[in-house]
Design a protein that fits this description.
By secondary structure, the chain is mainly α. The protein has five helices and no strands.
Length: 195
């Protein structure tokens, strides 16, 4: 029972942080939820729409997995899942916070953003996506089932595809600065790729 409450608390922290950031930036006149919106190539727009749909479905699948869990994993495995999910929440919040007013869900139409390379961005070019991935994997480890597994794998694959699209945008927007940053920091976790 403690594991269930721990995971539900982590999910609450994660989603409250996510929506609080959106509300704060919206009050500053900054649109943050731009998935599938704007003047984007069709393949980017459709990927973002799928990603948005899946990320809104994930909490439902995860809560159902927690509440109606049929597979009793050993307690140590469940707590390992909680630890992984906790690390994910931490990565997500640090990444989102460090982005300040440049944080967006989706690729912006304009170049009204800055390249952030400090804080957690020194060890990951995509800490928010790493956060999502770790949270999904942690919950899956604690409360496994076919639905949670399928949704988690699909989400992680779509996140990777979105990262690739965002990298193209960042290379076009920040040119040499992004290429240099990219040569030093890994896409997911790790520093000093070429050193």
């Amino acid at each position: 029972m403690c594991v269930k409450f721990a995971v539900l608390a982590l999910m609450l922290i994660f989603y409250v942080a996510y929506f609080a950031k959106q509300i704060m930036l919206k009050k500053q006149g900054i649109a943050t939820m731009i998935l599938g919106k704007g003047n984007k190539p069709n393949h980017v727009r459709w990927l973002e729409i799928k990603l948005q749909t899946l990320t809104f479905a994930m909490p439902v699948v995860e809560i159902a997995s927690i509440v109606y869990n049929k597979y009793l994993m050993p307690t140590a495995w469940q707590w390992a899942g909680v630890a992984i999910a906790s690390l994910g929440v931490l990565f997500f919040i640090l990444g989102m916070t460090e982005m300040r007013s440049s944080w967006r869900a989706g690729i912006p139409d304009n170049n009204d953003t800055e390249l952030v390379t400090s804080g957690v961005y020194r060890i990951s070019r995509n800490p928010a996506f790493v956060g999502f991935d770790l949270m999904y994997l942690g919950i899956l480890l604690a409360f496994p089932n076919v639905y949670n597994g399928c949704f988690s794998v699909c989400a992680i694959v779509l996140f990777h595809m979105q990262i690739l699209n965002e990298e193209r945008f960042l290379e076009k927007t920040f040119a040499h600065n992004y290429v240099e940053y990219k040569s030093k920091v890994r896409r997911y976790i790790g520093v000093f790729v070429n050193r």
